[in-house]
Design a protein that fits this description.
Elements (H helix, E strand, L loop, with lengths): L5 H11 L7 H13 L3 H13 L7 H13 L3 H13 L7 H13 L3 H13 L7 H12 L4 H13 L7 H8 L1
Length: 176
């Protein structure tokens, strides 16, 4: 049995033709085996292959199944993708509250886009009770990772005093 990540690395080499002949079919086989052994990254990448139809027939439902599997294995990118799917009703039934739960899981793992989307959900009160303080917290977390939209909205929060004290110097910091 290969060590965790070895099949993923080899699959990526076969997908890209990096030092080996390009072979998407073999890549998907390697990813499937690793995903079935519990590797979140492999499940996510297998889902992406189904999304794009690389080495497998394009199948959006199968793609979402593998991405959700990866999300359940604490893969932050997959958790964010599931958040988007439920929050917007793309590939999953519209369920903003469930989307927010996925955003939170990815956000606490440090995923900047999830932090930003969670902040917006708190700001709008969509899928969760409106909470400007939590909105600013997650905006600042994403902004600290150079998420441009989060930096701009954090500037707005400090400029206008929503979710925090009005502070023009902090507003200028985030706008800058």
């Amino acid at each position: 049995v290969p060590e965790a990540g070895e099949d993923v690395e080899l699959a990526l080499r076969y997908l890209n033709g990096d030092g080996v002949p390009r072979n998407p079919d073999l890549a998907q086989q390697l990813l499937r085996g690793a995903a079935e052994r519990g590797e979140g990254e492999a499940a996510f990448l297998l889902g992406r292959l189904y999304e794009e139809g690389i080495g497998v027939e394009q199948n959006p439902k199968e793609a979402m199944r593998w991405i959700e599997t990866a999300a359940g294995r604490e893969h932050d990118v997959s958790q964010f993708r599931m958040g988007i799917a439920y929050y917007r009703g793309e590939g999953r039934p519209l369920n903003p509250a469930r989307g927010v739960r996925w955003f939170k899981q990815a956000a606490v793992r440090g995923h900047a886009d999830a932090q930003y989307h969670l902040a917006i959900a708190y700001h709008l009160g969509r899928g969760t009770p409106r909470n400007e303080i939590d909105a600013v917290h997650w905006l600042e977390a994403a902004a600290a990772q150079n998420h441009l939209e989060a930096q701009y909205l954090a500037g707005d929060a400090y400029s206008d005093g929503w979710g925090t004290e009005r502070d023009r110097s902090w507003a200028a910091r985030w706008y800058g």
